Amino acid sequence: MNSNMEKPYVVGIDIGGTNTVFGIVDARGTIIASDSIKTAAYEKADEYVDEVCKHLLPLINTYGGADKIKGIGIGAPNGNYYNGTIEFAPNLPWKGLIPLAAMFEERLGIPTTLTNDANAAAIGEMTYGAARGMKDFIMITLGTGVGSGIVVNGQMVYGHDGFAGELGHVIVRRENGRLCGCGRHGCLETYCSATGVARTAREVLTARTDESLLRAIPAEQITSKDVYDAAVKGDKLAQEIFDFTGKILGEALADFIAFSSPEAIILFGGLAKSGEYIFKPIQKAIDENVLAIYKGKTKLLMSELKDSDAAVLGASALGWETKELS
Amino acid sequence: MNSNMEKPYVVGIDIGGTNTVFGIVDARGTIIASDSIKTAAYEKADEYVDEVCKHLLPLINTYGGADKIKGIGIGAPNGNYYNGTIEFAPNLPWKGLIPLAAMFEERLGIPTTLTNDANAAAIGEMTYGAARGMKDFIMITLGTGVGSGIVVNGQMVYGHDGFAGELGHVIVRRENGRLCGCGRHGCLETYCSATGVARTAREVLTARTDESLLRAIPAEQITSKDVYDAAVKGDKLAQEIFDFTGKILGEALADFIAFSSPEAIILFGGLAKSGEYIFKPIQKAIDENVLAIYKGKTKLLMSELKDSDAAVLGASALGWETKELS
Questions:
Q1: Interface predicted TM-score (ipTM) of this complex, two decimals
Q2: N or C: which end of chain B has fewer CB within 10 A?
């Protein structure tokens, strides 16, 4: 972590399909000011960036102006670290290739770095969270989809094109795999995202006849949170759904370990908060599937970043890595 | 590549289960002197290292003595880069943990670095071969087993314990997968090694009745070379065996791309020399299985290192990275 007395702050901007959240962060990882706007309300990227700046500038000025900001970090879907662009992001209103980092630099005169949201989460975890001091770890974000950020030798893995680390789209079921939003079948995220858990619930409820608290909920409305609530109440079927989900995820994680032999795999996102219901079957499947030389070496951890802050903190951590504008 | 006028050479030692080959290499990647001994003839590691040194020292002295050698690089099964040890290598005569790098340093007074054989091959490819100038690539060695060496941001991926990159042991068939030497089922290497190809040949010849040149060979003696020879002669069944092998490998490579988004995947080893018979189905399976954002971006290349030299060159390339002894 770079703690520069002259420039003691960074800005984190987390761009989601619904909301854009941003804040000013100090070297200890405290968000000292924050605000948000609706992402989808701006048809043109220019209008959107103008609006973020309109809300962000007063915060910056309260803390001494742009001169006090070391850099801006942005986490965005399909964000390309090398170019500072968002490229063909299906969940954002702006089509094609958007040079977002440059657009912020022009308006604010502050160096800006951008990456995808899961990479930002990994950098946040390394800077402020459970991965502090680690040089090799994998961050898995379990949300609507499954994202990942991989750190090797203390550096983010961006790959030759800036798009490395799409572990949610590793194929875990080649035969009769579930259809994925990416157009292929059997991707990890079709089973192990929050959406995947709900999908499993609907499948199991249709295929079987045993009683379950979940039967009280209209099938199309079941969420992974409902499955968790039922599991906590002792619902056997709900617990089995987590066992199934954890098994598939643990099998996949065992393969990921063979790739980068990380010190830890860190789980982040709503589903990760299902605690032992999901961690136990994941750990069991890792232990049963991992190659002997890796056995018992890789820790399975929960993110230590507060959920509400994580996205902004993660993005902001990138701000410490920016270089001065020339 | 470090070309030091004072110390213009490195030594490469490749330790295989049968032979140990070693040589002196210059900065251009030319092996200027080499020799070999039988690995398995020495029950004790101490005797073995003594014998290598006995053969190596005359070569070193011919080229100006130990002062002219920048470093020694060793490629060995189960080699641990961090400790310079070989750890529980099933195909070597010495059991447990052998501090091989230190043993050579003591005897020769030359800094010594060690890694596993596939990593050494990757470093060789980056220093002298098809991966020159690349910062992100994956080396896949197709031999008796399937090995891998992964380079990210221009650095070998060793992982937190020194054992990263065992992609031959990623599970590619979870249901009814073939039994692997590692004790698990469905590993990539049970299908895509030379041994895996021979195994496929035996399975297919038993399960089917169509004619094939391979039927002239006793089933237990069939090698991947026999399958290649038959394929070249137009044998349909032999060609199908390569299609099957290439499909499984290509599917796996498509998943590996989602991990590190490499500029190239480089195939090395006897099987890789089956040319179009194996490259075509691999490329087809990559194209059909890779996530859209990676499509057409990762090159599939054949190693440019001469087979006979590759192991020593790869190991020697590590020698340029050694630090001076303190």
A1: 0.92
A2: C
